[in-house]
Specification:
Elements: E1 2-5, E2 14-17, E3 20-22, E4 28-29, E5 38-41, H1 47-52, E6 62-64, E7 84-86, H2 99-102, E8 108-110, E9 131-133, H3 141-145
Parallel strand pairs: 1-2, 1-5, 5-6, 6-7, 7-8, 8-9
Antiparallel strand pairs: 2-3, 3-4
Length: 155
């Protein structure tokens, strides 16, 4: 599923406007019970908006929230079924503590260019994590070296 803002030229399944999702016919919709991958393209999402669209009640396994305005409060609005999460360029996220409790099945996590994120301790909560992408963050090499990995992560 591709969700874009109302003026986007990208082909989309739904569009986003004024904190609500609409189908192509202009009907307000919810993502409750949705089980497809979801990409929010060029949407000005925030944590409150994620609650409005009922994403937490979905069965989505792949979610791209990159370049959105979400903050630490987004964690409670994520579906527990997630296996892939992209939070790249989400500059208002400062920590992801609680992510593993809410989304224990995450295998791939991208937090590239998440400028305000400076702590990786949340990865202890992610028992299924296989791939972690952290390019261009405030997470320095010494931080990574202090984390004893219980399993092999792919580079």
């Amino acid at each position: 599923i591709v969700v874009a803002n109302a003026v986007s030229t990208v082909e989309q399944d739904y569009y986003f406007e004024n904190s609500f999702l609409y189908d192509k016919d202009g009907n307000v919709i919810s993502l409750e019970n949705e089980d497809k991958d979801v990409v929010f393209f060029n949407c000005t999402l925030d944590s409150n908006t994620l609650e409005n669209i009922d994403l937490a009640s979905s069965n989505v396994t792949s979610l791209d929230l990159s370049s959105s305005n979400i903050d630490d409060g987004c964690i409670n609005s994520l579906p527990s079924t997630l296996e892939y999460l992209d939070l790249s360029h989400c500059n208002y996220i400062t920590n992801l503590n609680g992510l593993g409790k809410r989304c224990p099945n995450i295998k791939i996590l991208a937090i590239n260019n998440a400028a305000s994120l400076s702590d990786l301790s949340f990865i202890y909560e992610l028992p299924n994590l296989e791939e972690l992408y952290i390019d261009n963050t405030n997470l320095y090499e010494f931080t990574l070296l202090k984390i004893p990995l219980r399993k092999k992560l792919k580079k």
